[in-house]
């Protein structure tokens, strides 16, 4: 049985699908939406050469006990770097679940003149005013961590009902966007398509809208980001942490201090709307297009050595305890 200690390589592609390779030759791939995985076991050395390797394909939230530990580890890796986490309730420990807190995903960050907390080792920490999210800038200033409360993944109809309550208090139909799996050639990608929300037609749906705290739970998500590739969600708190971290450096040059002062003057007039950001939301529990899932396993009968190399765009690689990021575009 494979264990998390036997991992030799983990790859996250641009479409946010994940591939994990184990030391015994086993490979595991997770779909871009996180809702399905396929595990390819190594060929039996004593079996017939033409006998295909055993493949196991399961829905993530229904993974059997034999693979549950592997899937939990892969999801933790995926959610740490993905734009939106996948959080099936069945795979979240009971002590990690929290009561339903708020339908709103918006948080307000402190004013530019606010003090920034300094953590152990000199980390600069910025917390949202409601304490639902925090950002910690590393002492090197090259990376930062975020921790935020996120509602657990729900079925699509409940997921849309929650967004409806958040955006339309009157429960009026609205046009929303959902992340689905699509395919272009042999490469899966995430696309957005409008979905017309339907008013609740069943008693259960109406009850879910009336009492969401009885239907939804939340958990804490921790993510790791590079300061060279910052999502707009974290741009303001990161700028605040960077400014305060630099302003407390006694060895900074006078010209640098002058530049920081100018930046502070420009940022002091930030409006409430600019200080507000929408936290990442969990993906729906089930994928609406599972038939678009594409698996990147190589042909076991191929003799070409380069067929084992990934041909898709890679976002991140983990190997021997070291994480390598592949950044696109201009790096500041």
UniProtKB/TrEMBL annotation:
Residues 10-79 form the C5orf34-like N-terminal domain. It comes from the Eukaryota. Residues 121-241 form the C5orf34-like second domain. Residues 156-168, 174-198, 255-270 have a biased composition (Polar residues). Residues 156-204, 245-276 are annotated as: Disordered. This is Chromosome 5 open reading frame 34. It comes from Nothobranchius pienaari. The lineage of its organism: Eukaryota, Metazoa, Chordata, Craniata, Vertebrata. The gene is C5H5ORF34.
